Amino acid sequence: MTYMLLIHEPAGQRATPTEAEGRKLPPAGCAGTMARMNEDANVQAREQFLNGLAHFQAGRLQQAEQCFEASLVLVPGRVSTLTNLGATRVRLGKAAAAQPLLEAATAADPGNLEAWYNLGLVHKAAGRADHALACFDQALAIDPGSAPVLLCRGQVLGVLGQLDEALASFDKSIASQPALGQAWSDRGTLLREMGRMDEAATSFEKAIAAGANLELNAWFLASVRGDGSARSAPREYVERLYDDYAADFQDHLVGELQYRAHETLIEHLLQMKTRHFRSVLDLGCGTGLCGVLITPVAGRVDGVDISSAMVAQARTTGAYTLLVHEDIADFLRDADRSDDLVLASDVFVYLGDLDRLFTGVARVLEAGGQFCFTVEPATGDAEVQLLPSLRYAHSERYIRRLADQHGFEVDASFKAALRNDGDEAVEGLYFYLSRS
Predict the structure, then answer these.
(1) Could you tell me which residues are beta bridge partners of residue 415?
(2) CATH superfamily name and code, 240-435
(3) I need a labelling partner for 10 at 20 to 30 A (CA). Which of 180, 300, 369, 403 fits?
(4) Cα angle, residue 218 at apex, residues 214 and 220 outer, rounded to 5°
(5) Contact 180/174 with Cβ under 8 angstroms?
(6) What topology is assigned to 17-228 in CATH?
(7) What are the residue ranges of helices labelled H in 2-30?
(8) What is the rounded distance in angstroms from the CA atom of residue 304 to the CA atom of residue 295?
(9) Could you tell me the pTM of the whole model?
């Protein structure tokens, strides 16, 4: 998220009409005393305000919030304080608490660009794209060349499906501030979604040159070039994707995309192995779809996921004895455990090189234990492909080679649908391995 430089307090600013509301008139003869008290309050409010600015610019957001709050108590309704406190709360992730402050600031000063911009960020964070767009348009009416506002406007236009308009907004943002790396990155992402891969690659290169997130943009660049050399999706990307997706995950995946990989994976396993499992490890457990299905034939089921929001959703199922928020490869490297079944349904699409993962599974899986998972199939001669969809595909040859290297037998493998993409089924490879 982009933030603009906060507005500073004008020297000697007078109280706004909002500030005076509710004050009692002083008794006759007390005017001088009240004037001195008001002057003292103004001096203290200004000191707190300037301290808040210093904390904000140093990244000490909680201290900044406290100072702006204190300033607002001393002199209520001051537009600059409302704006800065609202902007600070936006950055702290307190969008709901920021909203009334910023609405008051825009009502008192309709020409306040920073207040409109930050109010747009509040609506954007809450998923109210239409409201966010209206706020960004108000800000651009004040300054048509504001690069951060144009950037955020492009982002919400993309959410609204107005792709051409979003691209135009990104282009204007870049024209105004050519070194704005996030604008180049978002432009590349949009062009990738529009199928314009060469232009997307150029944008990601520009983003890297501008100093935007190197790991993430290098991975985006690899995806549009079909380069599978990147070992895995950046943790930041996957964690944010599924944290944002968690609340609607099952409704969208199972309901709209008719996702069924978890059902197929477990059903075929139970047809092959009519047994009770002592200890099951569900890698990339998500909201708990596999855990719920395997629990009736398991002594215990533990889950690991990179998304804390997904782990929270899985906890509500009651299927898991232990749930861990961690990268699955790191967990497998460090865990002190012994399992007789390891599951991974639709997880390896975010991992390119699976060697480290196989090493970890071999470490925790007891002899004779089962390792069952799905992958999306690579095409042509490639063993590993990073697709423009930002998902990895793996060849059957690659999986069989890893199985042999790490002491696994391939008991079964087959192709079957994972989910739908529009009206078409997306096929995957299902593998059932046992530890030698």
Answers:
(1) 429
(2) Vaccinia Virus protein VP39 (3.40.50.150)
(3) 180
(4) 120
(5) yes
(6) 1.25.40
(7) 17-20
(8) 15
(9) 0.79
